[in-house]
Amino acid sequence: AGAFFSGDSGVKLIAALDAIAHPSRPFEADLPRIGSRTTTDVDQMVVPHGDHAHVLQSPLFPPLSAPLIAAFGLRGAYVWPALAFVALVPLLLAARRQLLPDTSWALLAWIVVAANPLLLYALEFWEHAPAVALLAAATAAIAPSLAGGGSSARVAMGGALAGAGVLLRLEGAWYAAGLALILPPRLWPVANVRRFRLLAVQHRLHPLG
Question: CA 208 to CA 25: how far, in whole Å?
């Protein structure tokens, strides 16, 4: 039987190729075969489930990459990581304008590009760079709110972007939680609920009209 050995990228590539093979079941990976018989002797990042398996690590990334791989071959696997890394510069510059306007944009760009270990991840078929780019986009979205302006709509958009980043890399939840903790109290959902209840009580005690 033919086989190949790889790190995390190989598992994601198998999942992406399976998504291309059966697009109606993009999150199901085919079990390997020995001759005509399937086997459940698979890597620990792959969980057998009936006649198929599921990839545990970032199940969303392979199906998102599958169309690019189908269109451009293996070169397409590197498109999302590369584009995400390039997008980090304008996204972080947008956040800088709101949060640290006096800092040097050139220095920030240098740090993002040349002094960033994420560059190594962006050169491989890994979801780290897209996840960080989504979290950076979330930061840029809520940055006006952190600077004293902004709106609930921007915070909601930032939450959606952060949630997408967490779907790609689960540890991004720590960063998303940090963003939520530094939001101004006026934008906290719990605070808004309490404020609504307080207004309701006041209206009941002092009805208008």
Answer: 57
